[in-house]
Amino acid sequence: MRVLGIETSCDETGVALFDTERGLLADALYSQVAMHAEYGGVVPELASRDHTRRLLPLIQQVLDEAGLVRADLDAIAYTAGPGLVGALMVGAATAHGMARALGIPVLGVHHMEGHLLAPMLEEDRPAFPFVALLVSGGHTQLVEVRGLGRYTLLGESVDDAAGEAFDKAAKMLGLDYPGGPQIARLAEHGDPARLRFPRPMTDRPGLDFSFSGLKTHTLTAIRQLEEAGKLDDQARADVARAFEEAVVDTLVIKCRRALDQTGLKRLVVAGGVSANTRLRERLERECAKRNARAYYPRGRFCTDNGAMIAYVGAQRLQAGERDETGVMKAVPRWPMDTLRKP
Ligand code: ATP
Ligand code: MG
Ligand code: FE
C-alpha cells in the first residue's frame, strides 16, 4: 500500500511517500522558520497561508522523486491534530480533496503518534513494548507503548514543554527562534561549574515535569549578571549551559524512573528536543548502566516531517481505518491517550 503523508500542524510543510512493502520512498520538507523568526515565534495566520503555497508543489516533488503519479497512490494520511487549527485545515482539506478526486481512502492521524513512531522508520527500530519520552515544542510526555495505539501516559509537563522552555530561554539570551539548537550551540562554550539551575519536580516521586519555574530562574540569573555588569559572551554561554544541563538532567532522571517503574529495557526518544546531543549522550550512558537501549529518529525526523505521518497513516489505513467521506478533521487539542488500537 502506497500512502502519501501530509504534515501541516505548525510551521513546517512536510510531505512523504511510504510503501508498506518497500518502506519510505521519498520525503520533502519546507520549513517556515525563517519567515517566523522575524516575529520571534510562529504567527498562525502566516503559517496557514504559507502551507497553502507550499503543499501542492511539495506533493509533486515527492511523486517525481519516487517516479510515481497521483494515480499510483493507494491512500492519503494527514495530520488532524493537535496543532494550529488554520494550519491543520490546509493539510486536511488538501488530503480530502485529493482522496475524493482519486477515489482512495484518507485518514487524519495524530501528530504526536507520528513523533512517537518516527523511530520505526529506521533500520534499527525498537520492538514493542517500550517507554517513550516525547519532547517537542508543545509536549513533554512519558508514555508506555505496548503496540500501535496502545499507549499509557506515565507523566507529562504540568506547564511549559521542554522545547518551549528552550525557545523562551533563547529569547531571553537574544537568540533566534527556534531556540533549542541555538542554546545547544552556545552551551558548548559554557562553563558547567559556574551556575547551577534547579531540576524541577525531581525531589519528589512521580513522572510529571514542570519547566516554567526554570524559565523564571533563567531570567533572574540573566538580570543579576546584567546588573553586575558581567553579562558578556562567556556569561551568556554559562547561562545556556546551566539551562541545558538542568533540562537534560531533569529529563534523564524521569526517564530512569520510568524505566524502573515499568521494568522495560527500551527507551524511545522523539520530538524536536530529541535532536539535542547532550540529552542523547546522557541517556546513552544511563541506558548502558541498566542494560537498556535508547532509540531515536534520524536527525531530520526528530522535528516535524511528513514521513512520520505517512508511516502512522499507513499502519492504521492498512488495518482498515479511514475518515468518513467528506468529514475532514482538524483538532487543535487532542489528548494522545484517547487513541486506540486499530
Ligand atoms: P509539537 O510536536 O509538540 O506539536 P512542534 O511540532 O513545534 O511541537 P517539534 O517540531 O517536534 O515541535 O520540535 C521543535 C522544538 O524542538 C523547538 O522547541 C526547538 O527549540 C526544539 N529543538 C530542536 N532542536 C533542538 C536541540 N538540538 N536541542 C534542544 N531543543 C531542540
Ligand atoms: Mg516546528
Ligand atoms: Fe511536532
Automatic annotation (TrEMBL):
CDD domains: ASKHA_NBD_TsaD_bac (cd24133). Fe cation binds at H111, H115, D304. Residues 24-311 form the Gcp-like domain. Gene3D superfamilies: 3.30.420.40. Signal peptide: none annotated. Its EC number is 2.3.1.234. The keyword Protein biosynthesis does not apply. One of its GO terms (biological process) is tRNA threonylcarbamoyladenosine modification. PANTHER family: TRNA N6-ADENOSINE THREONYLCARBAMOYLTRANSFERASE (PTHR11735), TRNA N6-ADENOSINE THREONYLCARBAMOYLTRANSFERASE, MITOCHONDRIAL (PTHR11735:SF6). This is tRNA N6-adenosine threonylcarbamoyltransferase. It comes from Halomonas alimentaria.
